[in-house]
Design brief:
The protein has about 190 residues and is of the alpha+beta class. The chain contains two helices and eleven strands. The chain is about 20% helix and about 30% strand. The radius of gyration is 25 Å and the shape is elongated. It starts with a helix and ends in a 15-residue tail after the last strand. Bound molecules: dinuclear copper ion (CUA).
């Protein structure tokens, strides 16, 4: 009889059961440690981190006032030389549809949805985020290669989902002077 048959017949010795249980405890501990190591290394190597704050917003009022009115969308250079990109996602377009940022510069995306769940990713990079109505999606990155990148919506958001995309243009830093009045948008 093998151990399975012994167990079924109730003849498996107590020590054998303990031995098998202990082995599974080890397996569970190993898997847990592996998961923790995976998270820790993704934080250390790829700067992945859980969101540090949750910002909420009234989705049905973003066009009327506040940070995401049309004149405030696009890229704003900050006094410290970094860039903030504000954008609104809605069925089935991005505003702005052409996003321009300087190369080798800290870029913070701040994105909101005007209707349903959307998302955006920048092809060939690790930029990939969901944009959920009611929340401000914030993501910091830096683009090392100048050029044009496709930015599709990556959450199914309705019949026009496959036509929802923007273009990201990463250009020379010299083209993005800081405007002391803070009004310029690229
Ligand atoms: Cu928006 Cu898919």
């Amino acid at each position: 009889m093998n151990s399975e048959e012994l167990l079924r017949s109730g003849e498996l010795p107590e020590e054998e059961i303990t031995r098998v249980e202990n082995r599974w405890v080890l397996v569970v501990c190993a898997v847990t440690l592996l998961l923790i190591a995976t998270f820790a290394s993704s934080v250390a190597l790829f700067h992945d981190a859980p969101p540090s704050s949750v910002e909420t917003i009234q989705s049905n009022q973003i066009h009327q006032s506040g940070e995401f009115v049309e004149s405030n969308l696009g890229t704003a250079m900050q006094p410290d030389g970094s860039a903030v990109v504000r954008m609104v996602l809605q069925q089935f377009s991005f505003s702005p549809s052409i996003i321009k940022v300087p190369v080798n510069t800290s870029v913070v995306f701040r994105a909101v949805s005007a209707d349903v769940v959307h998302g955006f990713l920048v092809e060939g990079t690790n930029v990939n985020a969901m944009v959920v109505p009611g929340y401000v999606t914030t993501l910091q990155t830096e683009f090392k290669r100048p050029g044009e990148y496709l930015v599709p919506c990556q959450e199914f958001c309705g019949m026009g989902h496959q036509d929802m995309w923007a273009k990201l243009i990463v250009g020379s830093k010299a083209d993005y002077p800081v405007d002391p009045t803070g009004q310029t948008r690229f």
